[in-house]
């Protein structure tokens, strides 16, 4: 196998590992209900925390609170996916995969 290809592959692996580590240190916040509910994920999409304002908690309307938590979580997930794509995008070019 071509030594240059092996070198490139090792370099890409190192870059990927670095990006993965950096993503794990990121904190991404999703919100719902004008900030009444916030969900924080790390850059790998793992839950780090949930915060609720007093206005979000109505004992007579738990269903709305559940919906807001779901919306905030999906908002954070979308931001994680966008961040990951931004960070990983340059590596895809280095793989020579073109439009894949």
- CATH homologous superfamily? Nucleoid-associated protein YbaB-like domain
- Please give the largest β-sheet: 3 strands, antiparallel
How confident overall, as mean pLDDT? Answer: 89
Strand percent estimate: 15-25%
| Radius of gyration from CA coordinates | 19 Å
Shape designation: rod-shaped
- First-to-last CA distance: 23 Å
User: How many domains is the backbone divided into?
Assistant: 1
The CATH class is identified as Alpha Beta
Task: Write the CATH architecture name.
Answer: 2-Layer Sandwich
Number of helices: 2
Order of secondary-structure elements: HEEEH
Structural class: alpha+beta
Q: What's the CATH topology name? A: Ybab, Chain: A
Helix content: 55-70%
How are strands sequenced across the largest beta sheet?
1-2-3
Q: Provide the low-confidence segments as ranges.
A: none
Question: Could you walk me through the main structural features you see in this protein, from its secondary elements to its overall organization?
Answer:
This protein is an alpha+beta fold. The chain is 56% helix and 18% strand. The chain contains two helices and three strands, in the order αβββα. The chain has a three-stranded antiparallel sheet. Strand 2 and strand 3 form a beta hairpin. Helix 1 runs antiparallel to helix 2.
């Amino acid at each position: 196998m071509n030594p240059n290809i092996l070198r490139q592959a090792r370099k890409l692996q190192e870059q990927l590992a670095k990006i993965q580590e950096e993503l794990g240190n990121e904190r991404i916040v999703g919100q719902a209900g004008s900030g009444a509910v916030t969900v924080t994920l790390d850059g790998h999409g793992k839950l780090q925390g949930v915060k609720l304002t007093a206005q979000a908690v109505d004992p007579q309307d738990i269903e709305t609170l559940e919906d807001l938590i779901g919306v905030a979580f999906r908002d954070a997930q979308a931001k994680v996916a966008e961040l990951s794509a931004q960070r990983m995008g340059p590596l895809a070019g280095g793989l020579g995969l073109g439009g894949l």
